Amino acid sequence: MPRPKLHSDDTILAAAQQVLLTRGPSNFTLNDVANAVGISRAALIQRFSDKATLHLKVMERSTQEVRDYFAAAPNDVGLTPLWTMLKDLIDGMGAGDGFAGYLLLEWSDVVDDRLNALAQERNHLVRAAILERLPAGPHDPETAAGLIQSVIQGATMQWLIDKPGALNSFVIDRTRHLLQILYPDHAFD
């Protein structure tokens, strides 16, 4: 009879994500994750095979979280619902503590085809959520959605270099400025 699992896969993947963010995808080890969870390296290998599989499973979990977030989010059309969703999404980035680790994960998304496919899906989910909430005019919604997503991603990269205050506040502020330019007749609180 197999031994009962003391730690769920979700618990292990959450711990692995934190290790990945702290140590980076190249430097994290299965021992790091096993120690963080409190299990043996052998038990970790039995469940996830190797480091690459564990990394992939972490990113699959992350992608599922994005899917779940947008599936549960209200999808009303209009600038107020869009702004509410964007603030919530960006606020989820937090103040930026430890956020530099995400840059290393992005590099993995560029060089590994399986991770890249997941990153593309997350990007498409964000753009689709923006597009779904945008009004029909006065701008082409596809173009506006792309610009809004670009400002969010660009502001995040800018913050990683300059760190002017909290990440979420900085990105919300930059996004608000773009929305005020695109839709000057609407108030974005």
Summarize the structure.
With about 190 residues, the chain is mostly helical.
Task: Walk me through the structure.
With 189 residues, this protein is an all-alpha fold. It has two domains: 1-62, Orthogonal Bundle (Arc Repressor Mutant, subunit A), CATH 1.10.10; 73-189, Tetracycline Repressor, domain 2. The protein is built from nine helices and no strands. The chain has helices at residues 9-23, 30-37, 41-48, 51-72, 79-91, 100-111, 113-133, 141-162, 167-182. The protein is elongated, with a radius of gyration of 19 Å. The mean pLDDT is 93.
For this entry, give a set of tags:
2 domains, mainly alpha, 189 residues, Arc Repressor Mutant, subunit A, Tetracycline Repressor, domain 2, 72% helix, 9 helices
- The CATH architecture classification of the largest domain is Orthogonal Bundle
If you compute it from the alpha carbons, what radius of gyration comes out, rounded to the nearest whole angstrom? Answer: 19 Å
Q: In percent, how helical is the residue content?
A: over 70%
CATH superfamily annotation of the largest domain: Tetracycline Repressor, domain 2
How would the global form be characterised? elongated
Note the gap between the termini.
59 Å
N-to-C order of helices and strands:
HHHHHHHHH
The profile of the biggest β sheet is: none
Q: What is the domain total for the residues?
A: 2
> What fraction strand?
under 5%
SS-derived structural category = mainly alpha
Name the poorly predicted regions: none
User: How many E strands?
Assistant: 0
Helical run tally: 9
Report the CATH topology name of the largest domain: Tetracycline Repressor, domain 2
- Whole-number average pLDDT? 93
CATH class of the largest domain: Mainly Alpha
